[in-house]
Amino acid sequence: MAEDELLVPNDEYLKSGIHIGTKFKTKHMENFIYKTRADGLSILNIQQIDARIRIMVKMLAHYAPEDIIVVSRRENGWKAISLFGELTGAKIFAGRYPPGILTNTDLRDFIEAKILIVTDVWPDRNAVNDALSIGIPVIALCDTNNQPNNVDLVVPCNNKGKKSLGLLFFLVTKGYMESRGMINPGQAFTHTMDDFAGEE
């Protein structure tokens, strides 16, 4: 894929560190790894990241905002998912997710959803298990060390960095809003990647 076919210039991807994995890699994530650096860190393939973000946007475009829930236990994802929720109208859950929110209608904070996004399958496993039990699709942001069982769409990325998550949710928010007709395609998007990353 040529650079001009990427959602943002290659440099933007590199600056955000979206491609920097961990020293540990699982069998499932091997296909997304471009190379392993001398220091042992795995580097994810930027073309594959870009392609999966596009698939994520297409998948989400089939759902109304109120049918989407995004969960992030890790604090580094809170700013990005909060802004995604604010701009699109999707439901977000930042912090520790108590099991049953998607399954137990008796709970005060019960949430109805038709698709789930998690920023990391391990800390967000309670949400993934709830989604599995009610049969809704799961989109998971996965680093090289993730074991993404029972996930419908794996989006490879550095899911621990604020800038990386900021860039990813910037692209997904813009793409989703364009595909749902909330903003015109090509229209200047008033928010920046830094807004999503919480960077000053």
- Low-confidence runs of at least 5 consecutive residues: none
CATH class descriptor: Alpha Beta
Could you tell me the strand content as a percent range? 5-15%
* End-to-end separation: 32 Å
Summed up, the domain count is 1
CATH topology name = Rossmann fold
Gross morphology: globular
Give an overview of the whole structure.
The protein is α/β, with parallel strands linked by helices and 200 residues long. It has a single domain, classed as Rossmann fold (3-Layer(aba) Sandwich). The chain is built from six helices and seven strands. The chain has helices at residues 10-16, 46-60, 78-88, 125-134, 162-179, 193-197, and strands spanning 33-36, 42-44, 68-72, 91-94, 115-118, 138-142, 153-156. It has a five-stranded parallel sheet with strand order 4-3-5-6-7, with helices on both faces. A two-stranded antiparallel sheet has the order 1-2. Helix 4 links the parallel strand 5 (115-118) and strand 6. Helix 1 (10-16) crosses helix 5 and helix 2 packs across helix 5. The longest helix has 18 residues, at 162-179. It is globular, with a radius of gyration of 16 Å. The mean pLDDT is 93.
Key terms:
14% strand; alpha/beta; 200 residues
Structure summarized in a few sentences:
By secondary structure, this protein is an alpha/beta fold. It has helices at residues 10-16, 46-60, 78-88, 125-134, 162-179, 193-197; strands spanning 33-36, 42-44, 68-72, 91-94, 115-118, 138-142, 153-156.
How would you summarize the topology of this molecule?
Blueprint: H1 10-16, E1 33-36, E2 42-44, H2 46-60, E3 68-72, H3 78-88, E4 91-94, E5 115-118, H4 125-134, E6 138-142, E7 153-156, H5 162-179, H6 193-197
Parallel strand pairs: 3-4, 3-5, 5-6, 6-7
Antiparallel strand pairs: 1-2
